[in-house]
Design brief:
about 575 residues, alpha/beta, DNA polymerase, domain 1, Beta Polymerase, domain 2, Beta Polymerase, domain 3, about 15% strand
């Protein structure tokens, strides 16, 4: 493959252009399939580990999932001409400030277009003026909270600029590949990812890698020369800053072997965790830093080769990376009361998956085989109901036939359950009759339409579904998408009270763009005695791999196997559900 020239756009720049084109198409009212095509292509480009411009020049960008011949030509045009003609045409049609508005969290193209059409707002200054004057809350579907959120987003934008954070799955795809490549060098010894990515936060700003090496300078030079790296600072004796093709900044630090644990602990812990750790140490006559642990009494500094040694030297139990957020974990470690955390290996089944009967890409048998290969003992097929508008129309009669097909499918090593993901309609009712829901093994109810209800109306809507006798679980409760939109207005306290009273389960949706329940909501739900289900919401056979992100959310919430419903065998879980939900005798 030819080396990209210095003028070639980076993957991040190509992805930005494709995402902007998708936003412009959405502003222009294009069909959803076109908009989705450009968003999917932007995601694939941003996550690619090699130059996509170079691939496009070689006619190979179509090897990336979501990049077809048409988009490949647009990437070439961007590289050769500095612009995509379709983007230039649409940019001329809409004020540049309108595109900037779409970048604010919680706004997006559709809502920005409404503000443009109904209030004439064409940029950030006008948006602030309208919000300050109370004009936005008067619009249907916005309200006072939405207006306040817009002002908050504007304040953050002006204070920090349009900083881009990267979803964890995209960051880990880059970081883990880099760690593998660096570790393969002959000079490398220990190599580990640190920072917020190791804590499994929802998004990250950059990556940190810590290593030991027999020849540190040789390893920094080798890292800077990796194909995964788009550019790098001048390699130093023990450090180098890298920039990947996806635009992620990466700090590689090479340390002495006996200091590896100190540096890894320091770079992994959040600011708050490390402050708490230092305060705890000082009260014991110790000073902890990335350089070691200084004992005031002896004047000696103890360096640690492992993180476990750092915590043990301080008299603490080992604190898992996901807990290092400064939320009381240091005190719990001192009192030997840290929670046992759930792991991927604890999950026995998945209770949210889709097939070609709705918007999935594989058959029932194919999804079942993939779930079995992922280590699951049971799988609920939960295709969408008709009112959601996702592909095939799974009407009531079609669902009845689907139940028969699911029960007639046998795949070695896994038990198949007939389920459905039903839509919670705006009035709180479901879109299948009760007599059909009674035939299912599992019902998960979710909001997929009419997001702009008031907090009171949305809360009443979800509580009604929770209290429905045939609903087992509420899926992705807040409706948020980390890459596109915040959750809708919701009274969490009222929802948790209803779920605790009825025994209705709540889902942590493991899809990395959702991770919904959030860690704070998951912790609150568990504290209320509500069982949590970690589901993948898989739509294709490789979709079960995202379970690690749902588990990460649960671990960051401090949850163990006992609080995760699908850590149990299916028959045990079925018995633990409230009696009114035991619709089918479990033997």
């Amino acid at each position: 493959m030819a080396e990209p020239s210095r003028q070639d756009p980076t993957n991040a720049e190509v992805a930005d252009a494709l995402e902007e084109l998708a936003d412009l198409y959405e502003l222009d009212g294009a069909v959803i399939h076109r908009i989705s095509a450009y968003r999917n292509a932007a995601k694939a480009v941003r996550g690619a580990s090699v130059s996509v411009t170079a691939l496009a020049r070689a006619g190979r960008a179509t090897e990336l999932a979501g990049v077809g011949a048409t988009i490949q030509e647009k990437i070439r045009a961007l590289a050769d001409e500095g612009e995509i003609p379709a983007r230039a045409k649409l940019t001329a049609k809409y004020p540049p400030g309108l595109v900037a508005m779409t970048r604010l969290p919680g706004l997006g193209p559709k809502r920005a277009r409404r503000l443009f059409d109904e209030l004439g707002i064409d940029g950030l200054p006008g948006l602030r003026t309208a919000a300050m004057e109370g004009q936005i809350q008067a619009l249907k579907g916005f309200g006072a909270k939405a207006e306040a959120a817009i002002l908050e987003a504007l304040d953050a934008y002006e204070a920090e600029g349009p900083r881009r954070r990267v979803l964890l799955d995209r960051a880990l795809a880059v970081g883990e590949e880099l760690v593998t490549a660096i570790a393969a060098h002959p000079a490398a010894d220990r190599v580990a990812l640190a920072g917020s990515a190791r804590r499994m936060t929802e998004t990250v700003k950059d990556l940190d890698i810590v290593a030991t090496a027999t020849d540190p300078a040789a390893l920094t030079r080798a890292a800077a020369a990796l194909e995964l790296v788009a550019s790098a600072s001048t390699p130093g004796e023990n450090a180098v800053r890298l920039r990947t093709h996806s635009g992620l900044e990466v700090d590689l630090r090479i340390v002495e072997p006996d200091q590896f644990g100190n540096v890894l602990q320091h770079l992994t812990g959040s600011k708050e965790h490390n402050v708490n750790l230092r305060e705890y140490a000082v009260r014991r006559g110790l000073h902890v830093s990335e350089y070691g642990i200084l004992d005031d009494a002896t004047g000696l500094t103890h360096r640690c080769a492992t993180e476990a040694e750092v915590y043990a030297r301080l008299g603490l139990d080992y604190i898992e990376p996901e807990l290092r957020e400064g939320r009381g974990e240091v005190r719990l470690a001192a009192e030997h009361r840290l929670p046992e955390l759930v792991s991927v290996a604890d999950l026995r089944g998945d209770l949210h998956a889709h097939t070609t009967a709705s918007d999935g890409t594989a058959s029932v048998a194919e999804m079942a085989a993939a779930a079995a290969a992922a280590g699951y003992e049971y799988l609920a097929i939960t295709d969408h109901s008709a009112s959601m508008g996702f592909g095939a129309d799974l009407s009531a009669s079609a669902l009845a036939e689907h139940i028969t097909a699911i029960r007639g499918t046998e795949v070695d090593g896994i038990e198949l359950l007939a389920g459905s993901e039903v839509n919670i309609l705006p009035d709180g009712s479901l879109d299948y009759p009760d007599e059909l829901l009674a035939e299912l093994d599992w019902v998960i109810a979710s909001v997929h339409t009419s997001f702009a209800l008031s907090e009171a109306a949305m809360t009443a809507r979800i509580v009604a579904a929770i209290e429905h006798p045939y609903v087992d679980c509420i899926g992705h409760l807040s409706g948020r998408r980390l890459d596109r939109r915040p959750g809708y207005a919701l009274d969490l306290e009222a929802v948790l009270a209803a779920a605790a009273a009825t025994g209705t389960l709540l889902e942590i949706n493991a899809n990395p763009v959702r991770r919904d329940l959030s860690e704070s909501w998951a912790a609150a739900a568990a504290a209320a005695g509500i069982l949590i289900v970690i589901n993948t919401d898989a739509h294709r056979t490789d979709g079960f791999d995202v379970n690690r992100y749902g588990v990460a959310t649960a671990r960051r919430a401090g949850l163990g196997p006992a609080e995760i419903a699908n850590s149990r065998p299916w028959r045990q879980l079925r018995r633990e559900l409230p009696s009114q939900r035991a619709r089918r005798r479990v033997t």
